[in-house]
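Tutorial handout. Part one gives the primary structure; part two gives the three-dimensional structure as tokens.
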Amino acid sequence: MFLHHLRVIPHLVRMHVRSQMEYRGAFWLDRLAQILSYGSVFATIGILLARFETLGGWTWPELALLFSFQLLAYSLGAAMSFVQLRDLEELVRLGTYDTLLVKPFSPWAYLVFSGLNIGYAGHIILAVPLLCWAVLSVDFAWSASSVAFLLAAIASATLLTGAMITMIGATALMWVRSNRLFSIFFGFWELTRYPLNIFPGSIQITLITAVPLALTSSVPVAALLGKPVPILGAWAGPVTLAAGPLWVLLAMAHWRYATRKYQGAGG
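Part two.
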């Protein structure tokens, strides 16, 4: 069954990419709009830094590293999960999710790979060059171990993002309605492009525990740069690297639980 999935997945991805690229002009216009939108957010941070010089002790290149790290990890994780799991609510409500249950294929794998969102290309096009510039501009002595930590932290943050989105989407299998939870998710996600230490203690705890999105941005970047991390302290680095795989396991367990509870649109 596993080998069967591996053979089918490339075909699912290829068909979806072809459908997305049918109107290439519109596709790239949307990507340009994304770049301008997130570019304006970054410009706003730049305006703050021009006035106050630092933000929570973070300089301009350090904030650029934080912003690009957050955007890259999110785009990689969300490309594999967000639109697909957001649309799961509608599939459940209309009863069309039942058709996936009779396919000789994992419903989760079918949802994710048949809807792989290449629309996040705009995020990546902005994040990667900015990340490279920040790496070269930040006042930090890079080494092989720090580069390895950066890459591993991006991978872990990507997994954590995808896992959290999967868990939110999977609640539709039990409650039918789940998309309002995405509003909460993105409300907290907006905060994570800023250093964790500028927020009150209650928000810091929330962003590390209940909604651990700080582990996808400010915590790993602070640990990399040797900055103090509230609550976690010296454990920031290990916790960052362990968070992604751990939340993937939690997401898998939650998906199985929600699938067992699923009774169809009729309840």
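Part three, for discussion. Residues 168 and 181 are 7 Å apart (CA to CA). The radius of gyration is 20 Å.
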